[in-house]
Amino acid sequence: MNWVSLRDLGDDIRVWAESLPNDIDLVAGVPRSGMLPATLLALHRNIAVVDLPAFLSGCQPRGGQRYRARDVGKVLVVEDSVCTGQSLEAYREPLRTLQEELNIKVEIATVYVAPGSEHRVDYWCRRLSLPRVFEWNLFHHSLLSACCMDIDGVLCRDPTDWENDDGERYATFLSTVLPHIIPSQPVAHLVSNRLEQYREQTADWLTTNGIQYGSLNLLDV
Fold first, then answer.
1. Rounded to two decimals, what is the model's pTM?
2. Quick one: DSSP state of residue 161?
3. Which of 27, 78, 188, 206 could pair with 42 as two cysteines, CB 3.0-4.6 Å apart?
C-alpha cells in the first residue's frame, strides 16, 4: 500500500512546479481532491486558481485576481491523481467546446499517475502504483470498508481527566462531545477502550452524528 502524506504532496509539488511551462495563465482544480494540489501549484507559480466548474462558468478565481475567459490563453487543469481518468470525463466535452469557442489552450496535469496511464494527461509528477491512499482524502476513501478505527482521539477528542470519572461527567462527555471528523464512507470496525457498559451511549452518539460502521467493538472487563 502506497501512503502519501500532505508533506509528501507539498514536497512533490514544490519540485514539480519548477518544471511546468511558463505560459500557464490559470490553474483549474478538479473537485474535490484536485483543488488542494491546484492551489499549492498556483501559489508556487503566483498565478490565479479556480475550481474547474467555476472556470467553465466564468467565475472569479481565488486570491482576488480577476479574469475574463477571453483573456486566458492557457489553463492547466489539475488532479491529484489519475488512474482511469474517469473523474475528468465529465469535463472533457465542455473543455473542448471552450477551447473551440474562445481559442483557449487546455492541458491536463496530475501529481500522481498510475503506471500505464501517463497517456491520459499532458503532465505528471510521479508514478504511483495501486493500491494507494492519500492523507487528504483518507476519510473519503472506500478503503474504510476494510479498516478498523478508534473513536476517542480520532472521531472525537479524548475525555479530559476531569470528564473521565466513570460517572455523570463521563456520561455527559459520551453524549455531548463534538465529532472531530465524520468519515464519508462506512468504517468496517470501530474499536475502542470504552467499556462495554457504555455501548448504548456510544451507539447513540454515532447514530446522532451520522457515522456509519459495521461493528462496534468495546472493552469487556
1. 0.81
2. T
3. 27
Phi, psi (rounded to 5 degrees) for 112: -120, 135
Asked if 201 and 159 touch (Cβ cutoff 8 Å), the reply is: no
The 8-class DSSP code of residue 212 comes to -
- Of the pLDDT bands very low, low, confident and very high (cuts 50, 70, 90), residue 54 is confident
Q: Is a pLDDT exceeding 90 seen at residue 150?
A: yes
Phi/psi for 190 (5° steps) reads -95, 125
Residue 196 pLDDT level (bands cut at 50, 70, 90)? very high
> Which grid cell sits at 131?
493500491
- In whole angstroms, how far apart are CA 99 and each of 56, 102, 104? 11, 6, 5
* Cβ contact 152:112 at 8 Å: no
Note the Cα 39 to chain centre separation in Å. Answer: 13
